[in-house]
Amino acid sequence: MSKLLVKEKEIVVPGEVLAEGMDNLPGIGTYRQGEEILAGRLGLTYIDGRTIKLIPLSGKYAPKRNDTIICKVIDINFSGWRVDTNSAYSAMLSMKDGTSAYIQKGADLTQYYALGDYVVAKIVNVTSQKLIDVTMKGPGLHKLKGGRIIQVSCHKVPRIIGKQGSMVSMIKQATGCRVSVGQNGLVWIQGEPDKELLVENTIRKIEEESHLAGLTDRIQKFLEKETGAKLDVSKSSQAPPSPAGGRPKSYAASVRQGDNHGL
Amino acid sequence: MNEDQKQHIITLLESDKRLDGRKPLDYRKPVKVEPGFTSTAEGSAKVTIGETEVMAGVKMEVGTPYPDRPGEGTIICGAELLPLSNPEFESGPPGIQAIELARIVDRGIRESKTIEFKKLCIKEGEQVWLILIDVVTLNDAGNLFDASALAAYAALQNATYPKFDGEKLDYKESSGKKIELTNIPLSVTVCKIGNKFIVDPTTDEEKAIDARLTVATLEDGTLCAMQKGGDVPLTPEDISEMVDIATEKGKELRQALK
Questions:
Q1: How far is A227 from chain B (nearest CA, A)?
Q2: Which end of chain A is more exposed for a tag (fewer CB within 10 A), N or C?
Q3: What span, in angstroms and rounded, lies between the C-alpha atoms of A60 and A143?
Q4: What is the least distance, in Å, from the CA of B4 to any CA of chain A?
Q5: What is the DSSP letter of B114?
């Protein structure tokens, strides 16, 4: 006799039995052990027909194809650059994918990307052995100059970006900072020193309160209080004004828009 | 840390600002001391400075004195940088960073003469108390030096002698007698970035530091010990300014001990 032991959107911990019997199927974040389906990580349950899925609430970033991430150059070798992806695996940025400029044999590769530089890159391939290839060719992919990098939980990234990039646009509009959010949980902020700090604090607030209802309104009020200026949200959600030489819309923000897991 | 980020920190400092919005000479909040953090040590304390957390424990042993100091006990200081506290720390024998941390803590306490080593003598030439101070980092968010020195002192303040009948030590029972401490030495690390001075650096700022000076001072401003780190040399003017800052900030840290 099959039995579903959890309700939709219930918080479960690793090892918790989600269902008994063979009528249900284990989805992402769950596994089958004998007759039972168990949770593989801390998360919220999400029942999709017969399949039980888990939306993770914690844990490291797992690299996925087509994700736009912010990475740091950690090594340079003959064929290109090795970058840290803020996950368990580093990625390779080959010379071909790194720049469209002609690179002479034996040229000094640090003139393109030096050790410690941060770049916005896109994952082109992840093999089963977790060898990752990234590229710098594409809209919005660029080297990051100046500003600061902060680390957030990668599971909160959809919340920071918001629906159709509304949250990040609102932050940009209120502070005039340039912001890039990588799917791997690294966020780049550049602007006035006080405003950079405000962006950081706002993002920390989003991270803390992302599970509560009415997040956008609360963040809007917070930003209005901190900046002392009224925010026109309707404007920000459509065409965000390009701040300080920034591009019209952060590419990273536009990726996976609407990927809100129905939360 | 790349050049870009270092430049960012320097530019901010020129207008007396820091990445987290503090003034150059502000400590993070809260600075908190929790004495008696573990029950297995004779004395212990946990210190929190912002997100940095350090634990110190004091164990007491009876041993033989050094041949050249037959009537004196001693202190032995150790530090362990737990891999859990910072992704850059590795397990294994203490590295250069852990050794320096232990030595700074040791020197601050030893040179302040807060413990009279003669009073640790039980039987001259045969039995003396050895005070072992161990510092363990729980979370490294920068400024381990100041947090460790503060934790070590707080643990000493908290420590009581175990029961000793002349032959056997009974760690299960405390004699209730405290270690006599004559003054309060506190270390403050002043860092130089560009031509600005800051205290209580975060991990990011620590990577951008040109030079640092750890200064241990007493309540009345007496200097006990100093340790310089970093690649950039310091001028005599730099040092006197750093010592002044350290003395001033030492007073602030002292409030946390009360």
A1: 15
A2: N
A3: 24
A4: 5
A5: -
Q: Do A193 and B12 touch (CB under 8 A)?
A: yes
Is residue A125's pLDDT more than 90? yes
Integer CA distances (angstroms), A9 to A55, A154, A157, B108, B188, in order: 9, 19, 19, 55, 50
Distance CA B210, CA B7 (A): 12
Q: What per-residue confidence (pLDDT) applies to A72?
A: 95
**B150: distance to nearest CA of chain A, Å?**
29
Is residue A245 pLDDT above 50, yes or no? no
Residue ranges and CATH numbers for the domains of chain A are 3-56 (2.40.50.100), 68-144 (2.40.50.140), 148-254 (3.30.1370.10)
Task: Say if CB A181 and CB A128 are below 8 A apart.
Answer: no
| Res. A235: pLDDT tops 60 | no
- Give pTM, 2 decimals: 0.82
Least Cα separation, residue B20 to chain A (angstroms): 7
Q: What is the pLDDT of residues B185-208, one digit of tens each?
A: 999 999 999 899 999 999 999 999
Identify the closest residue of chain A to B15 by CA–CA distance: A193
- Chain B contacts of A145, Cβ < 8 Å? 4
- For chain A, say whether B169 makes contact (Cβ under 8 Å): no
> Can you give the pLDDT at residue A104?
87
Whether the CB-CB separation of A144 and A181 falls below 8 Å is answered with no
Nearest residue, CB atoms, B1 vs list A116, A147, A193 = A116
State residue A231's pLDDT score. Answer: 78
Alpha helices, H only, chain B = 3-14, 96-112, 144-158, 203-208, 236-257
Q: How many CB atoms lie within 10 A of CB B216?
A: 26
Mutate to test the interface with B, among A196, A198, A203, A204 (most CBs of B within 10 A): A196
Return the residue of A nearest to B4 by Cα: A146
For B16, the closest chain A residue by CA position comes to A193
Surface of B (21-60) touching A: CB under 8 A = 21
Question: Rounded to whole angstroms, how far apart are CA atoms B225 and B74?
Answer: 18
Which residues are bridge partners to A76 per DSSP? A81
Among the listed residues B257, B32, B31, the one whose alpha carbon sits nearest the alpha carbon of residue B156? B257
Joined together, the tokens standing for residue B78 give 């150790």
The rounded distance, in Å, linking the Cα atoms of A189 and A246 is: 11
Nearest CB among B15, B19, B21 relative to A148 is that of B19
CATH number for the domain whose boundaries are B3-257: 3.30.230.70
Residue A250 to residue A236: CA distance in whole angstroms: 13
A90 vs B contacts (CB less than 8 Å): none
| Inter-CA distances, A176 with A149, A169, A194, A227, Å | 17, 10, 11, 11
pLDDT digit string, tens, across residues A8-28: 888 999 999 999 989 999 998
Residue B6 to chain A, least CA–CA distance (Å): 9
Which residue, chain included where needed, has tokens 């920000």?
A236
Reported ipTM: the value is: 0.77
B14 touches chain A (CB under 8 A): no
